[in-house]
Amino acid sequence: MLRTILLCLFAAAAARANSVYYVTVDTTALGGTTGDVVFDFLSGGGPADNALPIEGFTTDGTLGTPTTTGTVIEPFGPLPNTVILVTDPNTSPFNEYLTGFTFGTTMSFLLNATENAPGPGSAPDEFSMYFLAADGMTSLITTSDPTGADTLLTLDLDGSPNGIPTVYTVSDPFGISATMTLNGGPSAVPEPSEAWCVFAGILLIGISRAAGRVCRHLHRGC
Amino acid sequence: MFEQSARGFHSGGLIGRNGLRAGGILPLLLLGVSAPASADTSPPFFGYLVAIAPPFTPPGGGGAMPMLKNIPGTLPGRPATLPPSTPRLLRRRPGAVPPSSRTRRGASGTHAHPLDSSYSGDGFYATCYSGDGTIPDGLNLTTFFGNLISGGNLTSCSQASSFNDAVNLSSGSGPTATANGTISGSMAQLSVNLNVGPPTLTVIIDFQYLQTFDSPLPPGSQLTFSWTADGFGIAAFSDCTENCTASSSNNGDQYTETITIGPSGQYSIFAEYYATANLEAVTVGSLPGPTSYTGSVNLGCAMQAIPTPASGMIPAFGLPGNNWSLNYSIGSNDGLEVTGVKLGNRSMASKMSVPWVNINTTDFNQQNCQLQADGSGSCASKLVYFQSGTNDVTAIYVFTNIPQGTQSCLVVTQNYEFDQPQPGDMCEPSGNVGCARFYPTVAYDYLPDDDSKSVNEIDIPMRIQFTVGKSETIGTDDDVTGIENFFDGNPVKKELYLPGVIQNGAPGAADDFYQTYLSQIDSPPAGVTGPIPDCPTCVQIHWRWPLVFQSVPGFGDDNGGEPLIPQGSTQTVDIAMVAYPDQQQNACSNLASGQQLSGVPSVFWYCGKGYDDSDTFFQHGGFFNPLSGTLSTPNISLTKGGFRINHSNGQWGQTVTLTNNGSDAVTGPLALVIGSLTPGVTLANADGTTANVTPTGTPYVFAPLDANSQLGPGQSLTVTLQFTNPKNVAITYSTQVYAGGLL
To answer: Do A136 and B647 touch (CB under 8 A)?
Structure first.
């Protein structure tokens, strides 16, 4: 029952958002490599919270055991099930889903983020994705990320419609590439089993933020 | 045409140019590697001995040439017996001839040997030459020639820096043998051409050259030599303890080797041609005519091109606001180029180069010769030397085929030197302007293949694209009052060509150049005198200071009111200031076209004209203040990106975009101050903390401006911030953008 409530709440959050991106990554150049896939969702320090479900994860690689930091909700279990990361500047500024992974040739998933704007002078909440070695520290790829973090892609939730997506160029190994397609991909349409939640979510739109806090509270308690 | 303003009457000390550089480093380098005529070297020494059969008893007795037993000879040349490191040789000789009075090329033709400078016997002749008439006291006595000296027969040399002797020897007894020909020597060429008439039994030739030079680099550093020694042994050596000697004895082979400079700061070059020929086997009835012995050492004009060195950089030493940094490369046509010259984070120049060389000698006249690494055709140049140090970079080019079919050449040496600020160094007389000096010098040496040839005029312009700002002045200082007059106002309004700012070595039409980011140079107002700082925001070039500053205690750049050029030089300097991008011509007089100059990026041309066989331009250098600038808060908006984690070090990274919303370009340095940072979080990539704006101690980063150190209207740039955030808390901070000054 708890899972159902949580899923409904974040489905509701997703329903009011427009930042829905279908992400595909060609990982052929890393095929057979064992490492980590990392999804980070960091608060920009502003007062608003945001939620970012990772849905419809598919791959021909092999997922391993996940490690989570901050507010990361797995209503139906780990990837490839939906995983939700939630920011809160006070309680969960740093949220991370790190999963062991043996790379195949491709992976894809849907990012379905809320669009709460940062406060004046604050940085936006940012989703970012990494390919790390099994040590969880060393990047498997070299990208054009100007900060030197070798981020593969980011989504900044600055309050504008659809946020600001960025895909960085991978210079090493050659051939790794990603795409972020707005409103694209198979998961843009709610799955039948979850369709009822959208309706519930619409009803709950006014209280989604508070509900999010309830969810996190419940999550910790679980 | 003139505007007048007072220049402060200044006082202050000096660490002078000469004191810092020990005078004339580059010409010495030139000497050491390739060419004659430079200051502060020991005078050259040349000595030779020729003997023909029958075997003779050398001076001092001891039988028939006992010294030869240790020196097995072969034709055409034997590897020289090279002297070991000899500190005594490396002492600077007090008799060094100053450039102004030196006779660049010595006696020629048959030399009249004075007493004690030669020794002759039966089929035997030896003599020596040196720039001051002395025999180097450290000349290695294990050599054949040294043995002759030790025998007591030579106590002095003829005074000459080069020679060309006719040799006519006869054995005089026994089987008659003769040797006729010439022996000549100079820094650039040692040559023996001897026809030995039958029935010669034995011919012995020992021919030596020795000279000591100041190193262009300090003790402990390395110098690389490159030459071709055809028939000669040649060596460079210092008084160090390891890697002190570089030598070659390969006939005709290109040779490159490195030595370490020893405590004396000097090095010597020694060359020897030694040959014995026992022709007994062919003298019995069938010697096929005269036999010729010829050797040469490829110095000066004969130096070989070296591979083009890779581009590089001289990094700052890490003291914000107080260190030079730059990039250098060998250009395709403009010689050694330096780009991106910055002092700390303050950009001074985007490029310095030599776009052309005009060569006019008594037998050659061509404009627009290019400094190329390995050119061809008429006035083709080749790069023969390159050296980069911690604060300077040097390239030497040789122009040959001037004209084609001759052995004459022009050696051009570029040296860009950037000195750190020196405590007590007063670059201007007030002593109140911090300064770091720079010297973009270019020197030339004309090496004709005949003494009758000489330079009519050598033009070498230095093109400098300063990026300090868009306001410039050209001024001339009154010798009595120190008051400065500005050509075409403050700032100069339109493109300007001003000939003869130095006129034939004498004061000319102007004395200095300034550039600032302010609307005009911040010179004291008219009528104000006293020790007033002189344009602290400027890059300044002074090729002459007024005579009145001679009385300022400790100020050493006054030079008695004379231009700051090499002693005795008769050079003329023209200048031009033109808008960027400039249309590069082959004459400075064609550069200015009357375009608007004030408020636009510009290029400064310093056009040296030499009339002597050697000269150096821009020896006075310039200086830049690392501690200046008027701080402003430009109309720049700021957009923060989100945070991300660098998993390798745990730091939080972020990009911040700055956009110039004003109508004017913002001139750097441009700094983003990060205030009120979340407790427990620090800015890991801060370039410094504030000292002049409150709250002090606030971290800031410099924004990466373009080559002109500017952010144009509507333009944006990105600054990257790195934070240490061990507790992974939410990061908040305030921002303020400052431009143009020190924080």
So the answer is: yes
Least confident segment among A18-27, A84-93, B218-227, B542-551: B218-227
- The distance of A192 to chain B (nearest Cα, Å) reads 35
CA B70 from chain centre, in angstroms, equals: 41
Burial pattern B419-430, b for ≥16 Cβ within 10 A else e, equals bbbeeebbbbbb
Radius of gyration of chain B (CA): 31
Q: Tell which residue, B466, B464, B454, B442, has the closest CA to residue B357.
A: B442
CB < 8 Å to A94, chain B: 645, 728
Contact A147 B731 (CB under 8 A): no
**pTM for this entry:** 0.47
Residues 6+ apart with CB under 8 A from B124: B49, B50, B51, B52, B56, B169
A157 touches chain B (CB under 8 A): yes
Asked whether the beta carbons of residue B641 and residue A124 sit closer than 8 angstroms, the reply is: yes
Task: Supply the pLDDT for residue B337.
Answer: 96
Sign, CA torsion B129/B132/B133/B134: negative
Interface touch B655/A147, C-beta < 8 Å: yes
The Cα–Cα gap between A128 and A156 comes to 9
Of residues A136 and B424, more confidence is placed in: A136
Chain-wide mean pLDDT for chain B?
A: 73
Q: Are B617 and B608 in contact (CB under 8 A)?
A: yes
Is the pLDDT score of B463 beyond 90? Answer: yes
Collapsed DSSP state (helix, strand, coil) of residue B213: strand
Instruction: Report residue A179's pLDDT band, with 50, 70 and 90 as the boundaries.
Output: very high
Q: Is residue A220 part of a domain?
A: no
Nearest-neighbour CA in chain B from A92: distance (Å): 8
A126 in B contact zone (CB under 8 Å): yes
Q: State the ipTM, two decimals.
A: 0.84
The neighbour count for residue B94, using CB atoms within 10 Å, is 7
Tell me whether residue A11 is in a domain: no
Q: Is residue B378 pLDDT above 70, yes or no?
A: yes
| C-alpha distance from B730 to closest chain A C-alpha (Å) | 5
Please choose, from the candidates B595, B593, B629, the residue with its C-alpha nearest in 3D space to the C-alpha of residue B469: B629
The total domain count for chain A is 1
CB A165 within 8 A of CB A178: no
Tokens representing B77 are: 């040349």
User: In this predicted structure, what is the pLDDT of residue A147?
Assistant: 93
Question: Which pLDDT band holds residue B147 (cuts at 50, 70, 90)?
Answer: low
Domain that holds residue A145: 19-189
CA neighbor of B709 nearest in space, from B629, B615, B651: B629
DSSP B327: E
Q: Which of B169-173, B319-323, B558-562 has the lowest mean pLDDT?
A: B319-323
Taking CB atoms and an 8 Å cutoff, what residues of chain B touch A134?
A: none
Give dist(CA A97, CA A69) in Å, integer: 7
In a domain, A199, yes or no: no
Residue from B419, B324, B325 nearest B16 by CA = B419
Alpha-carbon distance A156 to A165, whole Å? Answer: 6
Separation of alpha carbons B502 and B565, rounded Å: 9
Q: Is the peptide bond before A120 cis (omega within 30 degrees of 0)?
A: no
